[in-house]
Specification:
With about 625 residues, the protein is α+β, with helices and mostly antiparallel strands. It has a nine-stranded mixed sheet with strand order 1-6-5-4-7-3-2-8-9, covered by helices on one side. A hairpin with a 3-residue loop joins strand 5 and strand 6. The longest helix is centred in the middle third of the chain and has 24 residues. The termini are far apart. About 5% of the residues have low confidence.
Amino acid sequence: MPDHSRAPLPFQVDLRGVVDLLSRHIYSGPRVYLRELLQNGRDAVAARRAEDATAPPGRLLITPHVPPSGSEAGSPFRFRDDGVGLTRDEAAELLATVGRSSKRGDLDELQRGDYLGRFGIGLLSCFMVADTITVRSRSARGGPAIEWIGDADGTFTIRELDDATTAAMPIGSEVVLDPRIDGPLHDGSLLGHGTVRGLATTFGRFLDLDVEVVDPSAPDHPVRINVDPVFRTAEATTREALLAFGEDLLGTRPFDAVEIVVPGTGTRGTAFVLPSPPPPGARQASRVYLGGMLLSEQIDDLLPEWAFFVRCIVDTTGLRPTASREQLVQDDALEFTREAIGSALRRWILDLARQRPHRLQEFIGVHQLGIKAIAAHDDDLASAVVRWLPIETSAGTMTIDEHLSQTGVIRYTASRDEFRQIAAVVDPASPIVNGGYVYDQEILERLPHLIDGVRVERVTVADELDNLEPPHLDDLAATTALEDRASRVLAEVECRVSVRRYRPDDLAALYVADPSVLRRLERHRAASVAPGIWSQVVGAVDSFLADAGPGGAETDTAARLCLNWNAALVRRLATLDDDLVFERSIQLLYVQALLAGHRPLEARDRRMLDAAMTDLIGLSVGLDDKELR
């Protein structure tokens, strides 16, 4: 066996390159050094327990760095475990294992491989905060204790300690770090008491062995930072304690807590239901612990996509971490766990529906989008909750059950644009439902399969316009002339005019356009604002679709302004002789109807509005036609 005690030997690796790889591409930052030491210590304790059933339960003792002050000397950072320890051969091999490659993929394999490989990579992370690493260790397997010293210049020494020193050392390992003397961390702040206490609490407070931090002001009384993982033992925890933990996690009291148990991957925890809706498009990140050690507070792939109404915190032993130990490997185990968590959330919602329907209504009132996302594709859940789902109707917002109790039929539009156009003139006895919101149309179309006897009908703008009552035959000549005259006024904006009778009487005009017309208008608007060649491209597409005819993708049907013959203003316009006043009045009714239907004004619409307003103001102050024109 070669004697490594006589002279420094080089690592079998470009150490600076590996540390750069760790800091830039594996780890998120230098603060993970303490997490890696905690993980190494936990692994060492677990290895000793596996070999010796009488071994102590395990203890990790952290002594932060104390900088020199005045005449008092400082002290280095120390991390001690009472785990299995290292033999001389294991210590000599420690970093040679890592040195076989500096590729991330190989480091990833080492992380998931043998104990020494994981230990060595974790130890290397300490070079992000220290220039020198000293490891003193006594193996539970016997033999002399060893001292391994690694330097940031890429060399190390190793020596066996004498019998007296070995006998005086407890079984386990101690890692000693001297702060870096250059770079932004040269002050040793990451090794000081405040930071170390915070990092130890963040990463290791739920470990199943004692984690203690020495306070420089009371070095003989280290502080134990462990707390009970109440989120992991929900069945043995009072509901109040669990919700209090959730309040600490969320910053506000949770709506409820759902127990998560996935025996297949050794995953246990709690999903806390948010008391308010998250921002649109937000996906709740989960907090995941690996054997009590924090993996990350930002795991995005643990929950199903639809479960954005919960924040999950779990501990697992069966899910695999990536090389950085900050994310989970995307594999079958993770997919299985995700599906199991989804099933638990569905069961919770079903239990609310069966046992606490009023609480379910409160939940839906907060998280209706999440519930609709599930109900759109899950028949069992949809059958239980669909009656309580809120919908927007022309008679106001109500639940599906309330709407069915009034009409027995669901008449809906497929888009919000269509709903806005016709909601004001729909017969109150037969209201329509806005199916344009996310998931609403899918749910409405599935209602006959979920509730016996329900009929569902899709309503279009053209259908409703045809259902509006035409003027009496006695008024046919006047209304036909009004339609022709007003259509000529609006020819510039490609809008035809129809005259109908509808309620309310004070609604003089209604702008209606089916989806194909609305799409054409959107293309026209895009072409008007697109730069250079793109304007020509959009215009060419618009021309092609307009010429497609009945067999093509779209037909070039004009939008319509529907004038209400019940309105006194419309009947007066039909007898108006002043062409300028008539023209400007029709233009203003057109723009007013556009705005009432939440339609954006194009440039030509704004020009029309400006001209009409200017002329009508001129007429009101006494200008004549010649002066206005």
